[in-house]
Amino acid sequence: MNDSLFSPYNQATFGPLVAASVLTYVEGGKERVASLLRKISRYRIGLWYIPAFIIAPAIIGGVLLMAVITGDPTPELAAPSNLLMIPFAFAYIFFLGGPLRKEVGWSGYALEGLQQRWSVFASSAALTKGV
């Protein structure tokens, strides 16, 4: 099996982003591309952000506390040792190893067309099964 297929640096994972960009331009020109960019850059801040930003650190802290209590060696955590690197690591993961390269194609472009034919549930299930 080719390990480069599972690498975060696999260029093929940018396929949905490139395809969505090209198809959006072909279907509607610059105006439609601008609309797609507005859609993916729109964010809503709600109360659900509170648990999203608290739960993961609480779990990590709880696991570290359990390790200290039980006498196990605590793992070395690279991110908290250099807090200035966290925003850079986030940006790197988001743009090169995370959702941007797939979500623009699947949720930003394909989902809209699927929902014109099928229900929200069926459209989401089709995308989830295909990915």
Structural description of this entry:
The structure is a single chain. The chain has a domain at 11-43 and 80-130. α5 crosses α6. Helix content is 73%, strand content 0%. The mean pLDDT is 80. The two termini are 19 Å apart. It is mainly α. The chain has 6 helices and no strands. The chain crosses the membrane at residues 47-71, 77-97. Keywords: Membrane, Transmembrane, Transmembrane helix.
What's the short story on this structure?
The chain has 131 residues and is mainly alpha-helical.
Pick out its properties:
131 residues, mainly alpha, elongated
What secondary-structure arrangement, pairings included, does this model have?
Blueprint (H helix, E strand, L loop, with lengths): L14 H27 L7 H22 L7 H4 L3 H13 L2 H18 L2 H11 L1
